[in-house]
Amino acid sequence: MTARSIVVAAVIAMCCSLALADEPLTMETCAICHEDEAAAFAASPHGRTMAQVDGGILDRSCVQCHGATAEHIDDPSTENVRRTPDSTACVSCHPAGMATLEVSNPAHTRFGVACVDCHAAGHNDLGTDHLLADQPFDLCASCHQSEAGEFKMPFAHRDGTRNFACTNCHSMHGQNRQGRLNLLSPSGACVDCHTEKTGPFIFPHPPRELDGCIACHHPHGTTNPRLLRRRNVAQLCIECHAGVPAFHNLSQTRYQACQNCHVAVHGSNRDPRLLDE
Amino acid sequence: MSLVICSPALAQNWSGGVGAGYVWQDADGNEESFLTQTNLQSGFVLETLDLRYRNDSGVTSIDFDAWGFGDAEPAEAARFNMGFSGNFSIFAEYDKRDSFFDLGGSDLASRSDDWNITRWKAGVAIEAWRPVRFELYYRSVTRDGTVHRPMYGLNEFYPIGVNLDDTMSEVVFRLSTRTLPVRIDFEQGFANYRQKSRRFAAGSESIGRPDPDLLDTTTSEYTDSQDNVPTSRLTVGYSGGIFEGVVSLLYRQAELSSSGTGSQAFLIGGGDTGTMTFVDTLLGSADTEAFAGNIALGFAIGRRFSIRLAGDYRDSTSNSTLLGERLLRVANPAQGTSLDYTAPVDQDGVFDYTDSDARATIEYRAPKWAVWAGGLTTSRETTWRRTSGDDPTAAKRDGDGLLAGASFNPSRSFGLSLEYERGDFSKYVFRTDPETVDRAVLRLRSKLGKGWQLTANGRYEKASNPDDISALDFKSTPYGIAVSWNSQSGTSSFGLDLENYTITSAVGIVLPGGDPGQSDYELDLTTATLFGGTRAGIFGIDGSLTWMKDDGETWPLDAWNGRLRLTIYGKAGLEYSAFAQYWSYDEQRVDIDDFDVLRYGLAIHWRFE
Known about the structure:
The complex is a heterodimer.
Chain A: H1 3-19, H2 27-30, H3 35-43, H4 45-53, H5 55-66, H6 70-74, H7 87-91, H8 95-104, H9 106-110, H10 115-118, H11 136-141, H12 145-150, E1 155-156, E2 203-204, H13 206-211, E3 221-222, H14 233-238, E4 267-268
Antiparallel strand pairs in A: 1-3, 2-4
Helix pairs in contact in A: 4-5
Chain B: E1 13-29, H1 31-37, E2 43-54, E3 59-67, E4 75-84, E5 88-102, E6 112-126, E7 132-153, E8 156-177, E9 182-201, E10 214-220, E11 222-239, E12 243-268, E13 274-301, E14 305-332, E15 337-365, E16 369-385, E17 393-411, E18 414-426, E19 436-449, E20 452-464, E21 473-476, E22 479-486, E23 493-510, E24 516-536, E25 539-550, E26 557-569, E27 574-587, E28 595-608
Antiparallel strand pairs in B: 1-2, 1-28, 2-3, 3-4, 4-5, 5-6, 6-7, 7-8, 8-9, 9-11, 10-12, 11-12, 12-13, 13-14, 14-15, 15-16, 16-17, 17-18, 18-19, 19-20, 20-21, 20-22, 21-23, 22-23, 23-24, 24-25, 25-26, 26-27, 27-28
């Protein structure tokens, strides 16, 4: 730092101390030293939303998130500010997010996962939903590796070369919103896309009704076709169906895939033995 | 003194980018098998398109995003949002996913699929009154395409196709509070469902085994519909100093109406002997009324203790009927004779269930660690009768359990968590229901400094039931470790992810005819992924390589896939990329579905501010 810079900084600090002794710190004050950061934040979606709600919120945002005080002006150190805001800063404006997070999804808070582990502070326009710092799959995969690994399996829920977004099916903050009927059934998230399997059916398949699609399918991925829990279809079915008539000779190929005849495995509107859709 | 003034004022501006490419694909082996797994093909692809418009007044924001359009990728999506001065916005979303299935070595080999699911959603969100947000939108989901499958008839399988025509449309009104201490989210939707089955003969010869009888025609003109299905959802959440709570309720009533005719006609002895025709004329209904709710409450006791209570409830009642006639017509056109045999259809069924469970947890949380323990109880009551002649099946199942866990978070750089849960159940709805379940989850994450990060996780699950039920013996142990490094500038990173996923399952079964047997399934999958990327000057490179090996007894296989992308960063926001992707899949038992696929291509991206 040159002598000239030191003099300028000292003058600014002195002026600020005099001017702001009785006033709360605002973004204008912070912008004296952090001009680029303040300008970027004000122009970002986060800053613009604050300004639309109340200009005062934007003015106080630096202090609200980073906890800067007059002490920081006297001593511009990283020790007397929060470089990375903690969750309490977020909750001061977004209480509902924390309410559902704490109660419905305590695993995240117990593990020390903070808001900014997933959400960017908003100094830049990342163009993501909910200011997410990365793609939903990558954010979740950083902790949930085994689940992410299931999407690499040969038969998996994929969007081509893109990763399937975990938020398509899972609610992070416990609102139970993902999936139109997920409160009603374990299949709720599935029938958001696979609407033809919503039911009701005249002849339902009981495991689907009670335990949902996951009774037979691995939703993330598996080494078995159709995301099934068993490689062989007959093996999957016969684990539950103990009273199969003797003519089903499992050594014959035709009987090894039950759905060749029992085509309506998700439920039938025509046949009680699920022989017709 | 004049200080720098930071204003939220923003000039009107557009920013965005577009990236598109062309992909060539070379496949060795079974390309249909590759398409079944990935559905990637040669052709053009829109990798990304995003447009942003920002202004201070009037139309304050426009966001448009799209990706995946073109032949190369099986999924595409677009999204549009236009905001007006923070008072209201209009939005539209679209996505489409193509599904393909055609395997040679699977017991599903006789079936092939080629269909897509298309979803639309469009509406308006009103935020003029700050405390409440109103949303009104329309959404639709359609499934369109064709399934080819076998149809059983005259003791043989015959090839048929089914043209799919499934639609769902829904109008939804949603109200959510934003600034009140009590958060309320109410949603009311009305949906219509239509499913039309269009069956056709895809050949006349029986599949696999020569048979003199031929399939002449098969048709299905059934329509299954549900009109104005109401779904009501209400979520209420509150967060105070010592109390938090969320209550969610859902009510739904659906009335299915089904009607139509299905027929199959066979040429006996190739038509020389005569014809045999089956005609079903059916009229059915299924009415369901369902209610579900859950509640989650949290109480803080002092600075360290907290109690959490949670409960879920589901209740559903369904009644169904099927009326009509099944006709068998045997005819000999040469002799001019025709005989009809009819059987009436008059069936009704019920399917009712009630599920409930509750969980209580007490937790002690110190600044750097926490411990918790709790108990849970669950019950299920269900009754069903498929048809009028069946005896009702009634089953009740109860369970209780306990859980305990601990976490250690000395800093934001380190977290360790371990939780164990056990459940004991009595009575069985399905013979594969477990009597006991033990589950443990371990997670570790650590920022080691200088950009290094280490994470590890492991899960253990064991379930069993007695020999007189099905002698269930299930164990699952996925675990893994990952290490990664990110440069301070964010321009370079690499990492290694090692995972193992083991499942062993043994279930005592009853073979057709009554003999006892055992169903064994074993997965022992090891996956290693190496990934990284860096940028030096105008050059950038990133890629990944994944190796996968299943040593399980059921269906061992080896698989590889990798991708490499080289990018040159030009002037004026332009980027030029060349990329290659490789897939290899090798099943140990048979070769018919193995493949090696190389994809390569060029792409150009342009960004503007």
